[in-house]
Amino acid sequence: MKQKILIGLVTILLVFTLSACNLPFEQTPAVDTAAMNTIIAQQVLQTQTAMVLDTQPGTAAANLTETAGTEVIPTSTITLTPTLPVTATPQDVWLTITQNSNCRSGPANYYLLITTFKTGDLVQAIGRNPLGDYYFVRNPSVAQGYCWVWEKYATISGDPGILPMFTPQPTPTPSITPTRAPAFSTSYDSLTSCSGKYALRIFVRNTGGVTWKSIRIDITDNTASKSFTHISNDFQAYSGCTAGVSQTDLAPSEEGMVSNYNPGQFSYNPTGHDLSITVTLYSEDSYKGISLQQSFKVTP
Prior knowledge:
The protein has helices at residues 2-20, 33-54, and strands at 64-65, 73-74, 93-97, 101-104, 113-117, 122-128, 134-138, 146-150, 154-157, 184-194, 197-206, 214-221, 226-232, 238-239, 242-243, 255-259, 275-284, 288-298. It is mainly beta. Among the domains are: 93-162, SH3 type barrels (Roll); 184-298, Immunoglobulin-like (Sandwich), CATH 2.60.40. Strands 5-4-8-7-6-3-9 form a seven-stranded antiparallel β-sheet, with no helix packed on it. A hairpin with an 8-residue loop joins strand 4 and strand 5 (113-117).
């Protein structure tokens, strides 16, 4: 009995389920398996491409070049090759400067200075003077610039014999202002004393073209038969115990006062004595160089 009831219930349930399949609910569309697989494959390919690009350092979308139907290729970054140092060739003549050298507008040291090359500079020679001691070179610091450099402070690479001879246009002979001959004038000014020591004040004026840098004063007391010598690299006088302005030299047209003091002063009062004085000036310190003397007599 129970078995018959169970079979009946199952039959009723089956009939109800089959009836429900015909109800007007929205139906799920059938899936095109081949199309879905194609979409998935394309997405996987795009994902892999993006991963590869992300692993390239410094690569951005803006750096990509894309052509329809071709592979996406990152654009390469251009690296500039450094310029190589200039080297001499058999057809060129080069000068390597071995000591700082002036380059002038002509092949002599009285021409206008154009520039100065430093030790180690490399310049190209395009000509030479007939004597072969100066080279006409390109001035690297000025476009289309040229100048003459002395060969003594340069090492030559290449055959100088291939260079053309350049004879510069003559320049006006430099005007040389005649230098005035060495000269000076001197005269007695007065007698001064300090703490029992006596000295003369002697006026000196440079009337020539040479600068005087040291002085010697020789004094002979003809009355007392004594001699005194004053030497100094400075021109300085005394007034009593007070020292005057000290001048290191007397340039042309300069003047100054000097005294025979420390050394050369009198240990007594020479007033009324017959004194012979010789003043010697020198163009260098320590009584060297050009020298000139002036002598005179005085009775203080």
